Amino acid sequence: MKLVIAVVQDKDTNRLVDVLGEGDFKITKLATTGGFLKEGNTTLMIGCEDQYVDNALDILRDNCSKREQMVAPISPMGGNADSYIPKPVKVEVGGATVFILPVEDFMQF
Ligand code: 2BA
């Protein structure tokens, strides 16, 4: 068994959860925050048998979009904040950041 942990954008979550549910995947949805943008995102925990991992990855791939986002950088340390004009930079966020972990035991009581 594997635990697939996927960090996805909030905008993709509803569709993703629906499609995973249609595929009989069991999911736990966590409200999380990205360390860089400090904005909300969603982390899905999907526990499944090894032979279904590729199917879960296909669903993630097909339902998570890449989006560009502008970020205002923080003023440089020690610099003159008065003359500093923050220039927003573009970052590409998503589709999904996925971790696949082996599950040693799975129990439900
Ligand atoms: P955030 O940490 O808010 O990052 C959002 C996007 O900002 C990232 O998109 C990446 O394009 C950019 N970014 C992140 N750190 C950066 C840095 N130090 N310098 C420049 N740009 C940076 P994604 O890579 O698609 O990541 C989306 C979200 O997935 C992340 O949100 C974070 O919540 C999670 N994530 C990504 N990599 C991770 C990792 N290695 N471990 C844990 N969570 C991760």
TrEMBL record:
It holds the Pfam family CdAMP_rec. The keyword Metal-binding does not apply. It comes from the Bacteria. InterPro entries: CdAMP_rec, N-reg_PII-like_a/b, N-reg_PII/ATP_PRibTrfase_C. Keywords: Receptor. SUPFAM superfamilies: GlnB-like. This is Cyclic di-AMP receptor DarA.
